[in-house]
Amino acid sequence: MPPVIAAIAFKVALIVKISFVSAYYLTTAALIAGGAFVARKTTQALTPDFGSRARGQTVHIKQSAMPHRILYGERRISGAVTFIATSQGTKFLHMIITLCAHEVEEIGTVLLYNDPIYSGFLDGDGVVRKGRYRNHVLIQKSLGDEGAATQPFPDLVTEMARDPVTAHRWTNSHKQTGHAKIYIRFRHDSGESNMWAGGFPNISVWVKGKPITDNRTAATHWSPNPAMCMEDFLRTSAINSGLGVPAADIDTTSLDAAANVCDEFVETLQTSHTVDNDHPAWGGVQIANDMLRLSGDPDSRTFLAFQTGDRIQIQIVAGTLPTGLAESTNYYAIVMRHMRVKTRGRDVQDVGGVPQGNDWWPCTMRLASSYINALKGTFITLTGTSTGQFQVFKTAEPRYTCSYLIDVNREPGEILEEMASAMNPIGGGISRIGGKWFFNAAAWVAPTVTLDENHVVGPIDVQTNVSRKERVNTVTGLYVTPIMFDQPTNYPEITNSMYVTEDGEKIPLQVDFAATSRPATAQRMAKIVLEDARQSITVSAAFKLHAMQLVPGDVFTFDNTRFGWSGKSFRVTNWGMSIQQSSLGG
Description:
The chain has nine helices and 37 strands. It is α+β, with helices and mostly antiparallel strands. The chain folds into three domains: 11-51 and 447-585, no CATH class; 74-208, no CATH class; 270-397, no CATH class. Helix 1 (36-45) packs across helix 9 and helix 4 (226-235) runs antiparallel to helix 5.
């Protein structure tokens, strides 16, 4: 008897599998959060050696092979010593330090040890004429934009050519085209034998990094916008140390939306500096070359509390304002000198006219009329001086910024993860779906998509309890900020005393923000990480194709009678597609 064969028909359906978490928002910052389990793994995965790596980025390195570096935003950095030689016996030591494998917007203050050499300390040839290193050091800078036909350091070529033994070491054929770099010459026979008794100093530099193209305007300029920085790293060709992603693979709609969120301004606690006509430290000159000279403690070094792009207002304390400034008007900071310093030696007259013998160099800043002008360095012209005193205070800052130095020998995934953390590790980031890269900067956006039981295919998995092992009540960590000399330091700790009481002890979680430079931003994000870890609901389910319009980072509402959810907001954390088969009978 022939075998009986059962005829069974199957229906094949494409379904969307989504993991999502409850979304809540803080009334002060309006930032979405959620995903305790995902978030803890993500933030803890941020490279654990961040502190030592960040400290090492301000130390110049003598090594035969060094990975290329890419700088976004603004940082104090050093680099690889790519040339070193002596000339005229041991009279001069010459050194070239390569900072980045690309052009940069600006090479600012150079630091020997931790002593700043401001541009005003240099004469037209680059010789230091003021302070401790007067006549002992020459500094020349190359942004990397001079082109292949131009020699960036002709003085070095001339000096090497003085001796046939050294003539071949740096010639007109040596250019390092397209690389930002500095040339430093130390003088060793000046009669002060103790100048370099401890060896030649470590060299670091304040640098505004790579100019990038804003997809919203097609303009190319320096910007710390995290979404734009990430897109540039993705799009930069592999031969130029990027990932070489084609333009067609970038979702420009989400890119522009994320960039807009990053550029939104968030109010902060007011931080102020004083501009004082009568301050003894700088001879009564408060404005020079359109720069405000900011007062503080004249007996010690003080760091500027502002960063380029911060929103600023002016308030009169006494007297009148100089022409060009007004109260109750929004300005935007352009930082010129990050720190106040007392020089050693004579002849410290400022280019702005500070009297001879005045050896204090204050923090200085210019003001712009808009945020974009601050990024471009377009400042307001000021004329005259005020008759008294006024305060310059910060009122707000961009929601998210990125200051990040990439060693390109690291894993691309680690690099992108750290850069994405600048847009908030809870709700912010990038994802690749259907061959395209999508961007999301965490901020509350009212949901426009609703899912319910009719869209669900299969069971719903819900996790609501945070285990003791996963529980935290305090978030702390490191970040790098110019107000602490760009050394890794702890941002203000976030603790919820109610959670500490509930847990019976302090349970910390370390979350380092490798690409964030503002303390208020780090603190806001740390608060969201903490609240997310305590309050979220994590859900996984398979949905019909109606859910395809969602991508990770999107917020939607979910109605479910069983769980009592009506219009409850959730944020997508993971997204995938699969084929489902079901029997039609047999």
